[in-house]
Design goal:
The protein is of the alpha+beta class and about 170 residues long. The chain contains 9 helices and 5 strands, in the order H-E-H-H-E-E-H-H-H-H-E-E-H-H. The termini are far apart.
Length: about 170
């Protein structure tokens, strides 16, 4: 049974910020089995655990705190789409919402998280116009190269988009 711990630790090192269910699915572990071994790995400081907006993510111990937040948020499809648009350069919220095909309220929800963790900045220019820009473009590019949202995470984000679009015509 303990042979699972090196597999889990290795998977977390290769996929920093992995969500609990994505890890369990990828390693074909039952939830209880994954919980047990992750608890042991966290207790011995071989893996670190962090909660971001209702989801538990796992990291190697040497993962910097900015990376932790950026990795967790970039695993959410809509936030990842926002970051990908902003890699092209600064843009207005309206332009970003149109390019990723989401309601402004959905965009603002994700922007709240991205700005809280110093990943995106809102600059106010002439006449109060807002421009969105990446705070650390090179680091964001590196994070995005590391992350691939799981199928489950994509379904959750798409469901949220569907509901949001139905409520905000």
């Amino acid at each position: 049974m303990t042979e699972q711990r090196p597999r889990i630790e290795s998977y977390v090192a290769e996929h920093p910020g992995v969500h609990f269910s994505a890890l369990a699915d990828a390693l074909d572990l039952a939830n209880g089995q994954a919980q047990y071994h992750l608890h042991r790995l966290v207790k011995t400081d071989e893996v670190e655990r962090a909660e971001f907006y209702g989801r538990t993510h796992y990291y190697p111990p040497d993962c910097p705190s900015w990376d932790r937040a950026a990795l967790a948020l970039a695993r959410r499809e809509t936030a990842r789409d926002v970051l990908l648009v902003l890699l092209d350069g600064p843009a207005s919220p309206s332009d970003v919402a149109a390019r990723i095909d989401v309601a402004r309220s959905t965009l603002e929800h994700h922007l709240d998280h991205l700005t809280t963790h110093d990943i995106v900045r809102k600059d106010r220019g002439d006449a109060g116009r807002v421009t969105l820009r990446l705070v650390h473009p090179d680091e964001t590019r590196r994070v995005l190269e590391t992350v691939d949202p799981s199928l489950a995470e994509r379904f959750v984000d798409r469901f949220i988009r569907l509901v949001d679009n139905a409520l905000d015509p």
